[in-house]
Amino acid sequence: MKSDPIHPPYRMLMGPGPIDADPRVLRAMSAALVGQYDPAMTGWMNETMGLYREVFRTDNQATMLIDGTSRAGIEAALVSLLEPGDRVLVPVFGRFGNLLREIAERCDAEVHVIEAPWGEVFRPEQIEQAIREVQPKLLAVVQGDTSTTMCQPLEALGEICRRHGVLFYTDVTASLAGNEFRADDWGLDAVTAGLQKCLAGPSGSAPITLSPRAVEVINRRRHVEAGLKKEGDDDARGLRIRSNYFDLAMIMDYWSEARLNHHTEATSMLYAARECARLLVEEGMDNAIARHRLHGRAMLAGVQGLGLRPFGDVDNKMHNVVGIEIPDGVDGEALRRTLIQDYAIEIGTSFGPLHGRIWRIGTMGYNARRDAVMTTLAALEQVLRHAGVTLNAGGGTGAAREIYQEG
Amino acid sequence: MKSDPIHPPYRMLMGPGPIDADPRVLRAMSAALVGQYDPAMTGWMNETMGLYREVFRTDNQATMLIDGTSRAGIEAALVSLLEPGDRVLVPVFGRFGNLLREIAERCDAEVHVIEAPWGEVFRPEQIEQAIREVQPKLLAVVQGDTSTTMCQPLEALGEICRRHGVLFYTDVTASLAGNEFRADDWGLDAVTAGLQKCLAGPSGSAPITLSPRAVEVINRRRHVEAGLKKEGDDDARGLRIRSNYFDLAMIMDYWSEARLNHHTEATSMLYAARECARLLVEEGMDNAIARHRLHGRAMLAGVQGLGLRPFGDVDNKMHNVVGIEIPDGVDGEALRRTLIQDYAIEIGTSFGPLHGRIWRIGTMGYNARRDAVMTTLAALEQVLRHAGVTLNAGGGTGAAREIYQEG
Description:
The first copy, chain A, is α/β, with parallel strands linked by helices. In chain A, 40% of the residues lie in helices and 13% in strands. The first copy, chain A, has a seven-stranded mixed β-sheet, with helices on both faces.
């Protein structure tokens, strides 16, 4: 079969992610490879650990990358922390809560779920009540669930977990760097992420951080790989972790000064992950979050200025994505196609109960920019009018400009 | 923390992999992203399936990528094919055989191992004998084990497996595109690979192909993810696959026209994987294998021309890597450091029982080139002499040139 070198059509990706990668991240990926144990390579691994400590706001030594997409990070955390029969509590407020539930079930954990209606979040008292009832080993909850755009407040949960002797895990793929997050101050034991949202990179690498408490739990199940075992190597007593690829005890050994061989690190993805974090640290995490807050406010105001209704509890939505109710009589998918065809702008569809009911527009990572917000609103006005929706001409961009003038 | 944009030191990676990526593959990775369901993206996914069918020499519909390093592909194959208690036979002739064994054990399969001394391969009769005794569901064997450089002949095994009703799985990460391989003609049911050897790409994507028979076995365990299930979606009766990330039934749905959402495809790695296969198909698989054979012969002749002893059964070694016994009195690691410091050439160390006994030199992918072979031999001569080894001046490059003159 005959095929040509890759040559992507021009796009501005304003959906809920993946979004356009920062050009500096793309350039980093085209750098030459070096050997797996080259001092340059192990130096970058150590730098990457340090950079992600700043991104996660943690002092955790065990801060590294899982070689896979964000759900690889989730599975690594759950399969390494949970043994068959362990109780886990999963508060579900959208599709990604269901994913945590499903992965925990596949670990043969005893999974207990509480559910909030899509478009809402949980109050800490609800979660504490469920913890009292379930007495789980682990609380597993996503911070941001892109399926609903909601952002679960986490700051009160760490203290609750400590009080009840529960490990506290969150996935921040959708929210990290776009919304306030503090792994240590908030008492997190395990945190996983991905690059393809506010980190402005491609999918394919999953940063993770583990508290000393989580490391201790995992290392009770540490077993050195058969082919690497040396005289005197002592395995831990605990049940061997079910996955080799996601065995965090082995992955920690690989990222430690011992450098025990595990997988062959995905070097180009490490370059990407390192560059994503480097750019955020250079900008400053507070500045990055403020940038997402500003452009998110402008997009929300613009959408409302066009006369559209945002979805759900907007006080608890992520800064970096907004759900928009599709006006009556409009074919949501047809409008998305027109936006791509005429303006090369991609906005998001939705899943499950919200399918056909809302669009999702992101303002994240490289696309958390004034021109991206203004261009999207201008194009949206045109395609909505074309679809027969009555709206305020200029109302979207006008409302967004007001936000920018306030600053 | 302050860190700079990535800027790798110059290297020529002549170890057993990863090796230098082809510059065209690196360029492909710096292409802009598009949305996950953009017709451009799904078109590239389909192209990638077609290209890997040519690389694996198969008509299997189920030919796709696993988003992770090569061991992610191995784990996906084993965890999806094996249920707890299933019998699997693993012929082990090096470290990567031990890896298959370990991953199968973690699936709670009943793992039976036969072992060949490191440096040798199995005769088909030995494997058939073990199949008779064990009566496994699956035979799992690597084609090339880089730890020993050996290449297990596979062509007779498919017929044996069919006769005994056994599924036949191989990992060809180390050997694919550098050595003859024919998935369909040889009766393979599952094959996994990686990009970082003869495919001339970075680690981080694992091509996989599954025969209709393997697909049927896997689909008996197909369960649609909770968050995606629709009215009337029927789950299969079989035990749910233990991993979500490596659930090949779900991954096949994602790569099918149904496009059921699973992970967010690692777009840049897909660009890389597609380009690796595209370059091979453009060159022609037979030509690519002939190129590896030629440069492998030249390197072997050169090493012998220097008076060094190749390791193991050289008639059964992979074309793309050679093991070299470290001469008495030479500090193997010190010599490797000098090679990098003075010539920027990396050659490989070794694992387990061979550690400190052999070096491994690769001639693969982008580095299966005459200048790479000649430069490595010239540099090797210098550092060996510097280390006090008595050798034939010019004997390495001279012997290699003779091979090139024969053609």
